[in-house]
Write a structure and sequence with these properties.
CATH architecture of the largest domain in chain B: Orthogonal Bundle
Largest sheet of chain B: 2 strands, antiparallel
Largest sheet of chain A: 6 strands, mixed
Strand content of chain B: under 5%
Number of domains of chain B: 2
Number of domains of chain A: 2
Number of strands of chain B: 2
Strand order of the largest sheet of chain A: 6-7-8-3-9-10
CATH topology of the largest domain in chain B: ABC transporter involved in vitamin B12 uptake, BtuC
Strand content of chain A: 25-35%
Oligomer: heterodimer
Helix content of chain A: 25-40%
Order of helices and strands of chain A: EEEHEEHEHHHHEHEHEEHH
Radius of gyration of chain B: 25 Å
Shape of chain A: globular
Number of helices of chain B: 17
Low-confidence stretches of chain A: none
Number of helices of chain A: 10
Helix content of chain B: 55-70%
Low-confidence stretches of chain B: 1-8, 452-461
Distance between the termini of chain B: 35 Å
Shape of chain B: globular
Radius of gyration of chain A: 17 Å
CATH superfamily of the largest domain in chain A: P-loop containing nucleotide triphosphate hydrolases
Number of strands of chain A: 10
CATH class of the largest domain in chain B: Mainly Alpha
Strand order of the largest sheet of chain B: 1-2
Structural class of chain A: alpha/beta
CATH topology of the largest domain in chain A: Rossmann fold
Mean pLDDT of chain A: 90
Distance between the termini of chain A: 31 Å
Mean pLDDT of chain B: 84
Chain lengths: ~240, ~450
Amino acid sequence: MSETLLKVEGVETYYGNIRALGGVDVEVKKGEIVSLIGANGAGKSTLMMTICGAPQARSGSIIFDGTDITRMPTHLIARMRIAQSPEGRRIFGRMTVLENLQMGAGLDNLKYFKEDVERIFEMFPRLKERQSQRGGTLSGGEQQMLSIGRALMARPKLLLLDEPSLGLAPLIVKGIFEAIKKLNQEEGLTVFLVEQNAFAALKLSDRAYVMVNGKVTMTGSGRELLANPEVRAAYLEGGHH
Amino acid sequence: MANTVLDTPATEGSLVGKAIKEALFTGVMTLGLFLLYIGFRTDQDISNTPIVYGRPGLLAIFVAIAAVGRFLMVVFVQPLLKARKEAKAAAVVQDREATFFKKHILKFALVALIFYPPVIVSLYGFQGSLKFVDNFGIQILIYVMLAWGLNIVVGLAGLLDLGYVAFYAVGAYSYALLSSYYGLSFWVLLPISGILAAFWGMILGFPVLRLRGDYLAIVTLAFGEIIRLVLINWTDVTKGTFGVSSIPKATLFGIPFDASPNGFAKMFGLPMSSAYYKIFLFYLILVLCLITAYVTIRLRRMPVGRAWEALREDEIACRSLGINTVTTKLTAFSIGAMFGGFAGSFFAARQGFVSPESFVFMESAVILAIVVLGGMGSLTGIAVAAIVMTGGTELLREMEFLKHFFGPDFTPELYRMLLFGLAMVVVMILKPRGFVGSREPSAFLREKKAVSGSFTKEGHG
C-alpha cells in the first residue's frame, strides 16, 4: 500500500528492571487499520503507552511521519497528531460531554470545534443527547464513544485505540467497531488498535500482529490470521461471539 | 452500637423508647470520655504543687448536651433526613425556572457590599462602624480572597496545597520589609508582592511536579513551615518573632490617612477618625476580591483554565491530549500564589504589623476548610463559606452574654475550632460537595445548563 506512518523498530521497554517489551517491530501504513492482539499481560498496552512516550523506550526507535518520537515527552507526541483513546477510557468525570470534547480540540485552539462536534454527534448520536451531562455519569459504552470522540477532535493522523471493547456489551462493541471502520473508509483515518477481542479485531483489520510475552510472534493480514490454526487455537476457539 | 438505626419503620412509641435508650447510652459514653478532661481541672499553686478542682457542673452540662442531642437526633433529625431522602428520590428531576432573585443574587450581593460601609456608618456613626467594617467586613473579605486564590490551586487544578499561607506570608513580608527598608509605597509594592509570591509559587511547583495527592500535601505543608521558620530565624532582616512593626499605611492616590494637614480628614474638612482608613481598606479589599473573581472566571474559559480542570480530573488523559502538565501545574501554583501575595500585602497594610505568628499552619487549614466547605471550584459557595466561618468566629467574640451561663472565665473564642470542626462535619453530612456542589460548565452549543451536584457518583463504567 502507501507510505509508512508509524514505524516501531526493536523497541524495548522496562518497568524498573522488568522487561515488558523485548524488541518489538511494528509498522503502520497510512490509511490502514492495524490491530495488535494477544493475551493479558503480553505487553499490548505497554507498546501503546510506549508509542505515547510514557514510559519511554529504553532502546529501539519509534518514527512517526518521518520524525523520531522515541524520546519526546507525551504532550509533544500528542501534538504530532497521535490521538489516543487510552485503556480505561479516562474520561474527565466531572466535566460535561461537550467539555470533554472541547479538551480534545485544544490543539487547534478550538478552531474547528463546532464542525467537529457536529461530526462526532453524527457518528455517535448518543453523545448528542447527553452533551451537557457529566462524563462520569455516562454508561461504559457512552464513555468509550466519548473517549474516541475526544481523540478524534484533535484531527489525528493516527488514532490509537486501547481495548475499545473492554467491558462492553457485544452490540455496543459492534457499533463502535462499525464506527471505526467507517472513519477509516470514508476519511482515510489510520487506526492502530489493541484488542483482546481477537475475532472482532481481526475481522476489522487490514493487518494484525500477535504478541506473546513482550514479543511479536506472528504477523499477517487480518484474514490470514483468522484462518491460522495457531491463532484460532490460542485466541479464537470458543472465544468469539 | 449507638449509631445504628434500624431500617424497619418504627412506631412512635418504640422510637421514643429507642431514643431514650440511645440517649442514656450516649450520656454514659460522654461521662466516661469527659470525666477526666472536663470533670477535673488541674492547676498549680505558688509552690508548684498540683491542685485538682472538680467541675461536676460543667461535666453535667456536657453529658446533658450529648444525651439530649442524641435523643433529638433519633426522634426528629433521623426520621426527617430519611423522609427528605425518600422525597428526593421520588421527586422527578425537572428544570425549574430560576426566580428573578435567584438569577440576580450575585448583583444584589455586590450592591449590598458596596453600600455596606455607608449604611453601617449611618446606623452606628464613624466610631461605632469600626467594628463592623473592620472585623466583619475586611476580615471576611481577606479570607474570601485567600480562599478564592487557593481555589485556583485546589478547586480548579486539584493540587492539594496545605501550605498556602506561605504565599500570604511572602506577600505580607514583601510589603512590610520593602516599605520599611526602601520606603516604597503600597501601590508600587502591591503588584511586587503578588509577583514575588507567584515566583515562590513556582519555586514550590518545581519539586512537587511529579507528586500527587497525599505526597503533594505533605510537601506543601513542609513548604509552609519552611517559610515560617525562615521568617522566625532570619532575625537580621525579619526581626524574628518580634515581627515588623509600624508598616506604612496605604494611601488614596497619595493622600495619606493621618492627622497631617494634607491628610484625608483635613483635606475634606472632616473630623479626625480612624474609620476613614478602614472604610478605604474595605473598598480596597473588595476591589481586590472582585479582581480575583474576574480573573478566575475568565481563566476558566481560557485554554489554561480548561487545562487546570482537566488536570484535576485525569493527568494521563491530559498529556495524551497534548496538554503540557508541567506548565499547567506551575501556572496554577503561581497564579494561586499571586492572589495570596496580594492578600498578604493588603494584610500588612491593614495591620501595620506582621509577625510569623499570623502565618501558622492553622491559617492554611482554615483557608482550605473554607474552599472545601464552599464547594471546590465554586466562587459563590466559597464566599458563603468564608462568611460563615470567619464571620462566625467574629460573632463568637461578641457572645459576651454566655459568661452568665458558663462563668466569668468562659472565653467563647476558644471554642472556635471546636465549632469549626462541628460545622464541617455537619456540612459534609448534609452537603458532601460543599455549599455549592454544582459547577458551571464552560462549553455550550446553545443554552446554558448547570450540571447538578446530585450527579455526584463518579463511576467509570
